[in-house]
Amino acid sequence: MARQVANVWWGMFAFATLVLVVVSAIWIYALVRKPRQTSQEQAMRINRWWIIGGGVVLPSVSIIVLLIFGIPTGRGMIPLPVDGEQPLKVEVTGHQWWWEVHYPDSGVTTANQLIIPAGRLIDVHVTSADVIHSFWVPRLGGKMDMLPGRTNVIRIEAGHAGIFHGQCSEFCGLQHTHMKLHVEAQTTADFDAWIAARENLSFTQRAPGAAGQVFDERCGQCHRVEGITDGNRAPDLTDLASRPSLGAGVIENDHEGLRRWLREHKSLKFGNGMPAHDDVPPETLDQIADWLETLAP
Ligand code: HEC
Ligand SMILES: [Cu+2]
Fold first, then answer.
1. Nearest CA to 97 among 149, 184, 169?
2. 15/21 Cα distance (integer angstroms)
3. CATH code matching the domain that covers 209-292, chosen among 3.40.1740.10, 2.40.10.220, 3.40.50.300, 2.60.40.420
4. 73 or 218, which is more confident?
5. Which residues lie near ion ligand 2 (Cβ < 5 Å)?
6. From ligand 2's centre to the CA of 252, what distance in Å?
7. pTM summary value
């Protein structure tokens, strides 16, 4: 899709250049040529010729040429079923300021990362839980508004495996900039393994002592960890330890980053929806962090 959009751009660029060159040539010719004697009648005829040629024929031809480029591109961007191939359906919901990602066929849910198989059509069903956001992965082309109460579909396909950065592209409040989406295209085999590893992922082991209690009573009101808590107001943490970043790209998800997020998320991402936990002893937060690091397939 990105390639098609680029083709239209180059087509328009070439055509606009051609128009510029032709118009400039005529203009220069008009400047340098010797004035001719014309009768009133001849002048009128020349005028009419320019009005019809330059005002009707030229714009019509230009628009037709652009349509010849534009219509197939538009069709390529509409999620029409392609012969035989079933696009993979992924649901992406925008929240202030994070991304919820759900694979309805397998029931897998994750956050702030969209893992897709390379070389396969993906229909991303986008919507929002609060204000208007916009789904945008520049290198995969297209951009789609995420509207509360409405589901839009954008079709993407990654030509090869790799990491493609996504970013919310509709101003959605204070931390709009910190609403990045890690998009990763994997080979079909890797993707199948990624899904399979999460399909029945569930935990029974809680964090020890006070840490487990704090998590159940507080964190669990918002966060889901399959088998432990079922909050649904914040990123699902079931595969947290396998994600590249925290806070939708604010900080790297490593040993130190996770601890910093739990202690300083209010300053790392001012205004974000997670309450401060200043009253929880730092040792308890660190114990929660130790346990969170085990949440991965
Ligand atoms: C009132 C709801 C709420 C409570 C309670 C809450 N959180 Fe959060 N949490 C959020 C929201 C909302 C985010 C996403 C913030 C953002 O990125 O904008 C978040 C993000 C996170 C993240 C980063 C997830 C990611 O993928 O980026 C972690 C880890 C986390 N919370 C752990 C905890 C822990 C541990 C507790 C308990 C001590 C807790 N949260 C309590 C709402 C909550
Ligand atoms: Cu935004």
1. 169
2. 10
3. 2.60.40.420
4. 218
5. 133, 168, 172, 176, 179
6. 20
7. 0.83
